[in-house]
Amino acid sequence: MEQYAVEMIDLNNIKNKDITVSVPGSKSITNRALLLAVLARGKSVLTGVLFSDDSRYFMQCVQALGFEVFADEGAGTVTVVGDAEKIPKQKAKIYVGSAGTAARFLTALLGLSEGEYFLDASEQMKKRPMAPLLSGLRELGAEIICGGQEGHFPFTVKSAGIKKREISVNIDDSSQFLSALLISCCRGGADFTIHVKGSHGMAYIDMTSRMMREFGVRALCSKENGEISYFVPGGQSYQGRNYAVEPDVSAACYFYAMAMLLGIRIRVAGVKMDTVQGDIAFLQVLERMGGTVKETGEGIILAGPVGGRLRGVEADMHAFSDQALTLAALAPFADTPTVITGIRHIRGQECDRIAAICTELKRLGVFCEELADGVRIDPARSCIHGGTVHTYDDHRVAMSFSLVGLRVPDVVIDNPDCCRKTFEDYFDVFGSVCREMKR
Question: 369-412, pLDDT tens digit by residue?
Fold first, then answer.
């Protein structure tokens, strides 16, 4: 599919106002569970797994390293036979594609193990930051030889195991650097301490710590004089287990945003308030914009305001920045300006997402100012109209801007297939919800 033409919805012609949507498993949980299962003693069976480009690259990589991984996409399950002591192949080549989680997690695993490995990535991933993680692994004794630009893919990792038991890591660019080291640092069997610089994405670190504990390893967090450290006691190892992956809250948020724009009620099956996923905080922003949230045993329901009349908000989204694009897509339909801050780091993700927000909103006639760490969107100074949205091969740009077309005619999403990264049938589900509303 080269383009997707969004069908505008007539707010006066919505037949069905209660809709239930199912979304895939969480990407963040799927990839963490895969790595934890690889590092565990014995067999793990993962259910509710996300199958997408990112998770398939992850599975292909661990198979290339010699681990036994059996996937059943029809059943949504993956069986992994882990090895708590070593990587089966001490020499291998792996390709992580554009999967940032696989890139960071597997680099840390290889740098903390024994062997020689060549890692390559897509052109998109080659532009994304890796230097803080590579620097930390070098400090721990690994030799890393970059084949192109220093601090970026591709590179060779040569390691004889962990030489130090205490390091610092900067997570201003990505919390995945810390998650990667936390998960794999128990490989050496001794105590390990990580001092954290920066505070970006701590909700994802909480997810990592909780999942580590569920697989049998404790990571203890301490805060002193404003500094955060993690201590992983030695002598621990992950244990194979059956593990259910939660539905992806990031994906669910696009449908909750749809409810906001159309003034309808949407339930996303299986989504719960006590999720480990930080994007659940986005529902609080939607409540401030006029939505009503209700938790049920079958999943959270969000009811949008009557007629899709939204209130503008100011939101610091550093803890759930994947939804910055979603909020930016809602902002043109609010009654007052919306200011999004705390998202400086999203300039280094699949694309410069701050620049993408401003460029694509302006393309559609929306007034948008680029701030140092965010954006300001003013509906009163806008004259919104249709147009073709460029997606920069970024799944979140494609999914977020599809929402604009629900209220504006002639919005076309270029390269919708980029959603294969995390939600490969997004536009099928999106279209089915639109059809359901008119029945």
Answer: 999 899 999 999 999 999 999 999 999 999 999 999 999 999 99
The predicted pLDDT at position 265 comes to: 96
As annotated, the residues of the chain forming the CATH 3.65.10.10 domain(s) are 3-25+246-437, 27-244
Give the pLDDT score at 270: 96
CA–CA distance, 330 with 341 (Å, rounded to integer): 16
Mapped onto helix, strand or coil, the DSSP state of residue 52 is coil
State which amino acid sits at residue 352.
Answer: D
Query: 314: which 2 tokens?
Result: 């100011």
Residue 12 pLDDT: 86
Strand residues in 125-279 grouped as ranges (E): 143-146, 155-160, 166-170, 192-197, 220-224, 227-232, 242-244, 265-269
d(CA 138, CA 150): 13
Question: Are the beta carbons of 132 and 106 closer than 8 angstroms?
Answer: no
CATH 3.65.10.10 describes domain 27-244: yes
Record the pTM: 0.92
Distance CA 403, CA 357 (A): 13
Alpha helix (H) residue ranges in 148-269:
176-184, 202-214, 249-262
Quote the distance between the C-alpha of residue 254 and its chain's center: 14
Coil, strand or helix at 243: strand
Interstrand relation of 3-5 and 411-414 (parallel, antiparallel or unpaired): antiparallel
Please give the pLDDT value at position 201: 81
Cβ count within 10 A of residue 220: 11
pLDDT in tens, 161-213: 888 899 999 998 899 999 999 999 998 788 999 999 988 788 899 999 999 99
What CATH code is assigned to 3-25+246-437?
Answer: 3.65.10.10
Neighbouring C-beta atoms of residue 341, cutoff 10 Å = 17
Considering only CA atoms, which of 63, 72, 142 is closest in space to residue 107? 142
Residue 286 belongs to what H/E stretch?
Answer: helix 282-288
Q: Known catalytic residues?
A: 322
Please check whether residue 119 is in contact with residue 157, taking contact to mean a CB–CB distance below 8 angstroms: yes
Contact 324, 347 (CB under 8 A): no
Q: Which residues of the chain have pLDDT under 70?
A: 16
